[in-house]
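Structural prep section.
Before we set up the soaks we want a predicted structure of the protein with adenosine-5'-diphosphate in place, mainly to decide which crystallisation condition to try first. Input record follows.
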Amino acid sequence: MIAIYPGSFDPITLGHLDIIQRGGKLFERVIVVVLPNPNKQPLFPIPKRVAQIRECTSHLTNIEVDSFSGLTVEYAKLKRAGVLLRGLRVLSDFEGELQMAHTNKMLWDGMETVFLATSNEYSFLSSSVVKEIAMFGGSVELFVPENVAVDIYAYINKYFKK
Ligand code: ADP
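Run finished without errors. Recording the tokens verbatim:
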């Protein structure tokens, strides 16, 4: 069974990585797919996010990374993926995720949404939190893969430090 794990991953956090690793143990293949989110102003362009995810998942054999612009179900059909993987952190995630799962089911009956509960240590973590910490000069090493921390510091140095 092939699973897709869609998201904006701007940037990928250790919480996302945890879901990818655990998903990889459950499914034959997991395709992490970076999708544009029209409601969010991006920090990194999509090809950069794809490269970041590729680098921090390179030790995992059944993980692929891709990007797509369009409906998630269309991508799933293209890849013959029967599962859409999502992570659930807190109760407030649930409402939107459930709505999306029902919508996707209506759009295509060939795919099931599977939720993985976030590991406790990452339940507070989001890409937005990471971006906020970085903007205010904090360290992000505890929250993102090493290669992503390097990219974030480079970005901050380029655009925010005089
Ligand atoms: P989106 O913009 O589609 O919500 P995100 O990159 O924010 O994309 O999240 C992608 C998926 O990863 C979502 O299912 C989200 O709930 C999950 N996720 C985000 N942060 C964490 C975390 N810290 N632990 C587990 N899952 C997470």
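Observations: Residues 7-9, 13, 15-16, 19, 37, 86-87, 89, 93, 118, 122, 125-127 surround adenosine-5'-diphosphate (CB under 6 Å).
Flagged for discussion at group meeting.
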